């Protein structure tokens, strides 16, 4: 009996560690405040401020789980729709321009639910 309870306990602990988080801990407020450094560049072009790339890299570091990446995607799409004059080409190229590699495209048509991080 004691052996069976130890096995069940081990299985429960293992399940907790293996189970992927299903909820993001990043808010849209955090996403938009982080990315404000890039708005002028993404609307007007010109030289890319180093603070914008710092923001892109910071956001990439914050979003390390699938739910976090999906949340960031949804927040960026929502915020982007509110900003008049965004240059879609600059938006799409921003991660690469800042040296951040993503396995999915950036844009208003991105299906955020399809974003996942292989473990």
What is the element layout, followed by pairings?
Elements: H1 2-18, H2 28-35, H3 39-44, H4 50-62, H5 66-82, H6 88-97
Descriptive notes:
The protein is 60% helix and 0% strand. The protein is mostly helical and 119 residues long. The protein has one domain (26-114): Orthogonal Bundle (Hydrophobic Seed Protein). Helix 2 (28-35) packs across helix 5. The longest helix has 17 residues, at 2-18. The model is unreliable at 3-21 (pLDDT under 50).
CATH architecture: Orthogonal Bundle
> Structural class of the secondary structure composition?
mainly alpha
CATH class designation: Mainly Alpha
**CATH topology annotation:** Hydrophobic Seed Protein
**Proportion of strand residues:** under 5%
What is the count of DSSP helices, taking H or I runs of 4+ residues?
6
Quick one: CATH superfamily?
A: Plant lipid-transfer and hydrophobic proteins
Radius of gyration: 19 Å
* Overall pLDDT level: 84
**Separation, N- and C-terminal Cα atoms:** 35 Å
Order of helices and strands: HHHHHH
Protein name: Non-specific lipid-transfer protein
Family: Belongs to the plant LTP family.
GO molecular function: lipid binding
Keywords: Lipid-binding, Signal, Transport
Features:
single chain; mainly alpha; Bifun_inhib/LTP/seed_sf; Hydrophobic Seed Protein; 119 residues; Bifunc_inhib/LTP/seed_store; Plant_nsLTP; lipid binding; disordered N terminus; lipid-binding
Summarize the structure.
The protein is built from 6 helices and no strands. The chain has about 120 residues and is mainly α.
């Amino acid at each position: 009996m004691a052996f069976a309870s130890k096995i069940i306990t081990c299985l429960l602990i293992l399940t907790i560690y293996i189970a992927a988080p299903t909820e993001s801990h990043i808010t849209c407020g955090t996403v938009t405040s982080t990315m404000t450094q890039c708005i002028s560049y993404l609307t007007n072009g010109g030289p890319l401020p180093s603070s914008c790339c710092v923001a892109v890299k910071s956001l990439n570091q914050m979003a390390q789980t699938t739910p976090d990446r999906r949340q960031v995607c949804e927040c960026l799409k929502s915020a982007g729709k509110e900003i008049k004059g965004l240059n879609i080409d600059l938006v799409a190229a921003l991660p690469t321009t800042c040296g951040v590699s993503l396995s999915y495209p950036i844009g208003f048509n991105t299906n955020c639910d399809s974003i996942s991080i292989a473990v």
